[in-house]
Structures are given as C-alpha cells and as structure tokens.
Specification:
Rossmann fold; 2 domains; alpha/beta
Length: 350
C-alpha cells in the first residue's frame, strides 16, 4: 500500500495523525495534492460532538475538511482540460447529475450528493484527495493556496446574495461578522452593492469589517434596538435585503423587523435549536420573501474571479495557519478562539 498522512477523527476531540492509503485516480477523476484547507464551522461541530445537528452523525472514524486547494498530481482515463501540475480549488460536493435538482441546475439540493467530510465521505485533512475532474477549478499563479481555499465559503456568500437578489442600489444588512458574513459582504461588493451594513455583537469582528471589508456601516446589534438601526441606516424604511449568517435565533427574529416591505431575506446561519420564532404576521403583512441557503451551485468560477479581484482584503481573512500534523491543535484553536480569529487554515508545505 502506498501511504499518505491524514488527520483522522475517532470521536469527540479525538484526532490522530495516521498513515492511510493514498488514493489513485479512476476514470474521470483526478488526484490533488492538498496545499491548504480551511476549517469550517461544521468541522468544529464534528470535532466537538462527532455529529452536526440531528441529521449528520458520524458512525466510524472520519477525515474532515471540505475547503481544499492544491496541485493536480494524477489524472484518470478520459480526463481532459486538467493536467498534472495545475493549481486548483476543489469544490467538495459530487452529485448524481440525473435527478430533477441536478438537471435544473440546483445540484446543491441533490439527495445523492457525496460531500467531503460528511459521514461516509472522506475529507481533505490529508496529503492527497481523489475527486471528479469536473470538481476542480484552475486558480491564477498569483493566488495563494490559502486564499484559494476561501472559494468554498465565498461560494456560500455568492449563493446567499443570489437568493436575496442583491443588486446595485440596494441597502443590504448582513447579520454576523464571521467568515460567512465577511464572504457575503465580498460577494455583495462584487455584485455592485455599495450600501452594506454589517451587524454583530463582537467589537473585534466589527473592527475587522471596517478595516478590511469595505462595508459602509457597522453596528453592534446588541446595543441598539431594531427600530433604531432601521432609522439610523435607512431613514426608517428598512433594508432591501437581509443576509443572516450568525445562526443566532435572535438574529433570525430581528431580520423580519429590519427588512422593508417587499424586501428579501436569506437565512444562512444554522441555529443550535431547530425551532426559531418569527412574527409570521409581519412576514405576511410586509410581503417578505424569505429563503433558506443551502451550500451553493455553479459558483466556483465566479468565486475564483472575486478572490482574484481582491474586492476585500482576502489575505487578512486567513488569521491562523497550522501544519497537517497540528490538526488537533488547529481544531482546538478554531473551537476556543472563535471571536479572535476569522479563518483558520491547515497548510501542507511538503
């Protein structure tokens, strides 16, 4: 067996660096040498609880990580357009291609998706990864692998903006200044939105947004009432669009109060409790369009273009780096320093 190093999760907060079998490329596949992979909030959930919510529960040891970038080192039979040596970002979800969702372009809703690092699907906290050739996208030589790994969370931000139908001239409020909130701001800027207000209850996140993300306003949503926010930033009318990324139930509840009549809300953040209160009468009375955001579809080429445009300071988003051998320390850091760091990345310099 030709081996490689991988970080294997055996249970709650139990990650071990082990030698596992190195993958090889089958027909239509490529092998990517992983150079960088971001730690997502879902990785932290699996690390802390060995599950995420009630739907995704690990039943066997697992390799986490679904935000990778790297170098193609092997191509399988029938692969064209991609060759060894290509620098790529990796989209992590392979779908069936045959269901109504895939055929209509909404492949993120495919019921047979094989998504990296979910139960039964090995992830990218390893030296190498095998995946379908249509899931890798070339990145410019000038782009670092760490920045390229942001293609995945940026794709979530792009999809949230698409579902909220953000456009130039809109007044947009983003609730939550974590990685997804920052990526939603970057996507909105790329879509031509200039009037962006970012809200959070942590001053360090608001400061980061002011210094690196080119948002027009920031606001501590724990210090002002919703009607005060609406009055101060919209003259009392309400925001055209709300993108909720924090997962805090109070933010879900606030979004209806913050949006204008006829406005649009995209819900990205996943609350710990499945049931969240809304004022249904206000949703009806305002004729609000409210949509859930699940991953993304057809967004990686655009994400790479936005990253290359440097519409915000993407380098600053990468606030902490760890080597593959330090994956357990990296997960502890991501778990215990959420307010001090934006994006933690595992890098493989070898």
């Amino acid at each position: 067996m030709t081996g490689m190093r991988a970080a294997v999760l055996y249970g709650k907060k139990d990650i071990r660096i082990e030698e596992v079998e190195k993958p090889s490329a089958g027909p239509g596949e490529v092998v990517v040498q992983i150079k960088a992979v971001g730690i997502c909030g879902s990785d932290v959930h699996y690390y802390e609880e060995f599950r995420m919510g009630k739907t995704y529960e690990m039943v066997e040891p697992q390799i986490l990580g679904h935000e990778p970038s790297g170098i193609v080192v092997e191509t399988g039979e029938g692969v064209t357009g991609i060759k060894p040596g290509d620098r790529v970002a990796v989209e992590p979800g392979e779908t069936c291609g045959c269901c109504r969702h895939c055929k209509s372009g909404h492949y993120n809703l495919c019921g047979d998706v094989r998504f990296l690092s979910t139960p039964g699907n090995k992830g990218a906290f390893a030296e190498y990864l095998v995946i379908g050739a249509d899931m890798v996208f070339p990145i410019p030589d000038r782009m670092s692998y760490e920045v390229a790994s942001l293609s995945e969370p940026l794709s979530v931000g792009i999809h949230a903006c698409e579902l909220a139908e953000v456009k130039p001239g809109d007044r947009l409020m983003i609730l939550g200044g974590g990685p997804i909130g920052i990526m939603a701001a970057a996507a909105a800027l790329a879509f031509g939105v200039t009037d962006i207000t970012l809200g959070d209850i942590q001053e360090n996140r608001l400061q980061f947004a002011r210094e690196h993300c080119h948002v027009k306003h920031t606001v501590n949503t724990g210090e002002l009432k919703t009607e005060e926010i609406v009055e101060r930033f919209t003259g009392g009318e309400g925001f055209d669009c709300i993108i909720e990324t924090s997962g805090a139930p109070v933010a879900d509840y606030m979004s209806v109060d913050l949006v204008r009549k006829g406005g649009r809300i995209s819900l990205v953040g996943i609350p710990k409790d499945e049931a969240v209160q809304f004022h249904i009468f206000d949703i009806i009375d305002k004729e609000v369009t409210l949509k859930g955001v699940f991953r993304y579809a057809n967004s990686y080429p655009l994400a790479i273009q936005i990253l290359d445009s440097r519409v915000i300071d993407f380098d600053a988003v990468i606030t902490k780096r760890f080597e593959l051998e330090e994956t357990a320390e990296a997960m502890d850091f991501a778990l215990n320093h959420k307010m001090e760091s934006v994006k933690t990345v595992i890098v493989n310099a070898k």
